[in-house]
């Protein structure tokens, strides 16, 4: 009996968090706090937020309409549709409009309308603050390539991922990071999840105006040395790519990230060229429509991360 109650309690305390393509379910955690509602509201998408606000608005008006309808003479100027009159009077009162056609005429009606006006003022302030925060919250607007590639670069196997700045202005003081995660067998039995920071050719730029490719050279010191698509699948490999920078328009730090599984790694492919130089004024055209496109590095062959050839998987 005690175990059943504990299991039910743990189910009620389940918290689901999605990090990229992986979902974490936390059990036996503390219950929600009131301040968690604020973060939950900020995390909703705009259609979800609009639906929540609309449902809350209609629900509050229906609630106060019920309160007004409990006393038949609480509102003056009513028609034959008593409950509808109560509902629309509640709409006017909650918004502090007050057309004057209907008004509270009893002590009970004045008490309910006073409570509703206070609720409306508080709700308007809260919703105004939430909408302002949602509009003013900085967004990185960085696009990541749909896949990562491993191909020779300057004669050495290299892991590459392409990213692009979609803002209409440069990002400044940009920092880049790729983390590699995999399961490894322990001497005592079982496996353990290891995390590695991959060394990049460059990990920060003063100015990040358009698109670029992050590169990690796979040498003997790299945790990817000798890796194949089969070994990455067995180790349940994950790659996490993050970008942190400053938006100079609002002088605020922005951050975004994306994760890749072993299924999104293309051996023996490289990204196609997306830059084109025009004229003598160093005008560079960047084709974002081809940012995700790849091409075979060598026809009919792939490479392991250690440089040896392997047959191409279909």
Structural summary, described in words:
The chain is of the alpha+beta class and 314 residues long. The chain folds into two domains: 105 residues, Helix Hairpins (Orthogonal Bundle); 169 residues, Immunoglobulin-like, CATH 2.60.40.1400. Helix content is 30%, strand content 34%. It is built from six helices and 20 strands. The strands form seven sheets. Strands 5, 6, 7, 11 and 14 form a five-stranded mixed beta sheet that branches. Strands 8, 9, 10, 12 and 13 form a five-stranded antiparallel beta sheet that branches. Strand 12 and strand 13 form a beta hairpin. Helix 3 packs across helix 4 and helix 3 runs antiparallel to helix 5. The radius of gyration is 29 Å and the shape is elongated. It starts with a helix and ends with a strand. The C terminus is likely disordered.
